[in-house]
Amino acid sequence: MTNCICIAMKTNITTDQSALLSLKAHITSDPYQFLSTNWTSTAASSVCDWIGIECGLRHRRVTAVNISNMNLTGTIPPKLGNLSFLVSLDISNNYFHGNVPEELSHLHRLRFIKLKLNNFRGEVPVGIGQLSELQYLSLSNNSFQGSIPLSIFNLSKLEMLSMQGNYLEGKIPEPIQNLNKLRYINLQDNHLRGPIPLSIFNISTLETIGFSLNYLSGTLPNEICHHLPSLEGLHLSYNKVNGQIPSTISQCSKLRTLALAYNNFSGDIPKEIGQLELLEKLFVQSNNLEGAIANSSHA
């Protein structure tokens, strides 16, 4: 029985090693030789001691891969989806390109995915919506195309969603309200169109909403702040939002940044904005607004 356990453990860690060596083989440029001199399969080398790798104390399986900021160029192999104990994947700020393989959807323990600041393209993998433990998803500053997959809105534990600086198009899906633990959402600098889904204003955990630099339209609801007690940043500049700025914006009492510039807002600037005592940055220029902000030092 003891022999069976040993064989199973060897197979498991061998699976992890094989997945990481596959990743290494898909690296076409490693200018500082971070991986080429460290990720080796010699008998004296343990996967858990490789640079950027962490293993769990109990099972001695790979739980974290962090190869961010290494100036690496390459692609992500499907075999990376075999790291079945992986909790955190951070390959941000490199030169990875190509598509993100659907096999990453096999990593059911994943809580953190950080792929920002690379050259990934193609559509955002639908399979990401199967990662039920995911809390942090950063795909910003890549070249992702297509629409935002509806499956992402199945991620009930998601707290941070960043997809800024891509080529995403279509509407922001209405099921966004399913992300009822979301604290931060940044979809800025894409090609998103259509009205801002009203359901987002019902996510009471939100601290930052970033939708600037898109083609979003429609109006803001009068009850915009009724369910946003923690909102600190509302970024809607450079869109096509129209109508009046709701006077109830003052109910977002923790607001520090209110960015509504370069839209089609009309009517008077609500004097209630002057009641936002924590407000540090206010941008409302280049609209069709009238009046001034009373009792406020903000400009």
From TrEMBL:
This is Leucine-rich repeat-containing N-terminal plant-type domain-containing protein. The keyword Repeat applies. It holds the Pfam family LRR_1. It comes from Cinchona calisaya. One of its GO terms (cellular component) is membrane. It is found in: Membrane. Its main location: membrane. Keywords: Glycoprotein, Leucine-rich repeat, Membrane, Repeat, Signal. Residues 78-187 form the Disease resistance R13L4/SHOC-2-like LRR domain. Residues 15-55 form the Leucine-rich repeat-containing N-terminal plant-type domain.
